[in-house]
Amino acid sequence: MPSYNEEDILVAIASYKRREYKSISRTSRVFGIPSSTLYNRIFKPDSKNKGYTKQQILSPIEEETLENWIYRAASLGTPISLRLLIILAEEIRKNRGEISAKSTYTPISRKWTERFRERHPRIKTYFTRPIDASRVEATEYSTLKPYFDTLGDLLREKKYPPSAIYNVDETGFSIGSTRGSFALYDRTKPPKGKRQPGRQEWITSIECISASGVALPPTLIFKGKNVNSEWIPDSIPPGWTFTTSNKGWTNDTLGYEWLISQFQPFISQFSNSRTLLLIDGHSSHLTERFIAFCIKSNIDLFLLPPHSSHLTQPLDLSIFGPLKTALTLEVDQIFRNSTYRLPKVEWVEAFIKARTKAFRSPSIISGFEKGGIYPFNPEILLSTLDPSPRTPSPNNSNLTEIRAASRVLRERTSPRTPTAINLRRIVDLTTNDENIPTPSRTLIRDLIDFAESRDTDAILARRELREKEELLNRRRSYKKGKRVALKGKFLLSKDDILEVVKNVEKEAKEKKSKKGKNKKVEVIISSDSEEEESLDELA
């Protein structure tokens, strides 16, 4: 073990640079540090970093390529987990462009992922939340750029003031259940969760806000045929309206009624010549009478891109999330004292308090700003998206050099090569040879880096392709499903189903051979491979 440490080396280097000692050998003797160590640290300051680099599981080029794959996967909505990161690193290490006598490696540990993230601080872990694939595809640059171009043209042409720009949408709530939330518990005992009565009925609220920070009174839709006065508390704010539907959802009729009885009277109090109403693609906003009334009333409808409301709709950006969080706090307070069925009137009272907290003027204005609508600023969203990448084509001379280098590297790393070859070892030996001109050494290093990056890309691409092929082959191997009618049973095992299918098919063949034509049987071949079993009730 050396009798010096990093601090001793730094002190020795500082003394030498202050010319306290005339030579490195003299400094070496005074501080008890090998002269070669001092020489390398003074005249080759990157030698220590190179030493650490050689000890890394993946080379810097391999890590950089893997880092780019992480960003790519995240942008496609398929983020890479820490466990998958280890698997990909193992794949690169075992399939890199080198032939080594070493056939086994120490498995990569979890600590490596921590060091990897320290070397690449741009990478950040987060808790993933599921999102529909259609939402991911709808939020591409190529989709949102035309939307903002059209919206910008309309805003410049009509010159709407903020009091004439509105956004309407519906949001639903389940009475008897709330969102999950952080809470305190005894760490010596497993947490029991949060008690609640369970899902009861659905209530929908039609909400509308303007870019000036104003919110229209809501319309609450209960499940039922008639509104019960028992559901309406005495503390209801003015202007609120209530209605019912079969399932507590909105529909074409309720959407139209809201437009003529709530929205039109509200905007008529302003002196705006035209009004802009931002809507999503819900069918209740796109009926003939809804559109006709808007045309007649100088209301310009503007349709948000499909499946993009989480990025473009002001209500989703700044209101609905805080509203449901505030409602959870209010309802949880009721559940702490009683977990019996929650009366509608108590839910409405809690909703009134939560809505007061969420529908604040600064929050409403913030929703239009985050969506880039008012003030009009598409870059606030487009700058977070990657435009369609275009791969630059290298010039002919570079292309020739790259192809030549790739051919040589393939030959050197062929499995038929009898001796062990390490590309990084070749680089070190070549670039340290002073007989080779410096430009050539630089070119060799760049070509090796390029080859290593492409090799790592190929390894990851082959793995991705292999996984897709395995999934496709597995799906091809599935047999067509059959729906069978079994009498006298409710619980069916696999053997029960297969036995009945076999008997019914046998019976069908016998009938066909006797009568010479097909008869209706109790076996239905499902072309879409549905896995459903229809059961007759017990007689």
Spell out the key features of this protein:
alpha/beta, six-stranded mixed beta sheet, 21 helices, 4 domains, three-stranded mixed beta sheet, 9 strands, 539 residues, extended, Nucleotidyltransferase, domain 5, single chain
Describe this structure in words.
The chain is of the alpha/beta class and 539 residues long. The chain folds into four domains: 40 residues; 232 residues, Ribonuclease H-like superfamily/Ribonuclease H (Nucleotidyltransferase, domain 5, 2-Layer Sandwich); 81 residues, no CATH class; 54 residues, no CATH class. A six-stranded mixed β-sheet has the order 4-3-2-1-5-6. Strand 2 and strand 3 form a beta hairpin. The longest helix is centred in the last third of the chain and has 39 residues. It is extended, with a radius of gyration of 35 Å. 19% of the residues are buried. The C terminus is likely disordered.
In this structure, how is the largest beta sheet organized?
6 strands, mixed
Number of helices: 21
Can you tell me the CATH architecture of the largest domain? Answer: 2-Layer Sandwich
Tell me the name of the CATH homologous superfamily of the largest domain. Ribonuclease H-like superfamily/Ribonuclease H
The backbone outline, from C-alpha atoms, is extended
**Major beta sheet, strand line-up:** 4-3-2-1-5-6
